Amino acid sequence: MSNHYNSTLIKKHPRLPARVMRITTPHGEVLTPSFMPVGTRAMLNYLTPSDVLDTNSHIILGGNTYHMLCTPGMEVIEKIGGMHRFMGWSKTMLTDSGGFQVFSLSEKGSVCIIDEEGAHFKHPITGKILHLNAESSIQTQKIIGADIIMAFDQCTPEAGGRETALAALDRTHRWLIRSKAEHDKNPQSAYGFKQALFGIIQGGSFRDLREQSAEFILQQDLDGIGIGGEVIGFDMQKTVEIIDWVRPLLPENKIRYTMGVGLQPQDLIDVVGRGIDIFDCVAPTRNARHGTLYYGEIVERDDWIAFESDTGVTKILIKKSQYAKDDQPIMPSCDCYTCKHFSRAYLHYLFKEGLIAYFHLSSIHNVHVMQKVCVKMRERITNVPSPPAKAGGEG
Q: Out of 51, 267, 270, 280, which one is annotated catalytic?
C-alpha cells in the first residue's frame, strides 16, 4: 500500500457536472461516485466487513469521534492499533469530527453546551464532563486513524434564521483554522499513515453565506471539501440548490462530499448529477431495520440515470400482508445475496417474527442497491458519448 492521499479527475460527463474521481489512500483506491455506509459505533449495523465488501463498498464512514470518545475510549482504540484493526475493515475509511453529534446534543440543553472554545458534554454513562474542541477532535481522529478526517465544525440549524447561520459559519471558520494548525503538526495518523483533512462549507440556506464559506475554505488549501448543515440531505431540493451555488467556486481536482445524503437511491443520482463525489447516510440500514426495502429499476434518461419503479414508489414495506406468500425477490433485477437466495415471503416472515436474520439480509439489500446506483452512474459518465465537434469555419 502506498502511504499517501491523492484525488484525480478520471472522466467528466460531457453535458453534466457529474464526474468520476479516483481517491488514493493508504488503505486502497476508491472510484467515485461512491456511497459510504455508516459505522458510527465502530460497526455497520447487522453487516460484517465481508458483507460490506460484497456490496461493492470500498469506503465507509467508521468510528464517529464523539461516540468513540465516549466508548470504548481512545486508550482502547490506540492499544488495538486504530479503527481499521478494531473493526476489521481494511479498505478506505472516513471519520467525522463529532460536530453533528455536538449539534444534536446541544438541542437538549444541559446535555451539551457549545461556546467559542468547543463543546462540553456529559458522558452518557458516567456523567463525567468531556470537552471536544478543534484540537482534541483532530487528536482523536489521529488515534482513530481514518484516511480522511474532518475539521471540527458547528452544524448550522435551519431554525434561527440568518443571524444563527452567520454565527455558526464564523465559528466553523475559526475552528477550521485551529483544526488545520493541529493537523499540520503531523499530517499522519498515530500509526504513521497519511491522513487527508476536509473542511466543511456551512451557511445554512443563504446563498451569500454559502459562497463566502466556500471561498474561505478554499483559501486554507485543504485536501477536500464537505458541504454540511442540517438542511443537507434533509431537504433535497434545497440541497441541490446549495450545490449549484457553490460548485462554480470549487476546484475540479478535490473531492466534494455532501454530508448525510442518501435517504433513498434517487438522492445519490441527484447530487452526483450536480458534481458531488461521495456521500454517507444511516438511512439504508435504518430503513431496512424498520421494514423499508428499496425497490425499482435503474433506467437511462436524458444522458443520465434515474431510479424508478412500475408502481411509482421506490420502496416496499415488507411487513404488509400482501408479501406473506410472495415468492419473488425484493427486486427481481437485483443481484445482491438476499435477492438471489430469498423471497419476499421469507423476509416478511423474518420481520414479523423479529428474527435477527431479517436485519442482516435486508441491510445487505439496501446497501447493495445504493452501491449499484453508484456503479451505474460511473458507467454512464464513462460511456456517454461526447457531442460532435463543431465544424470549422470556411477559409
A: 280
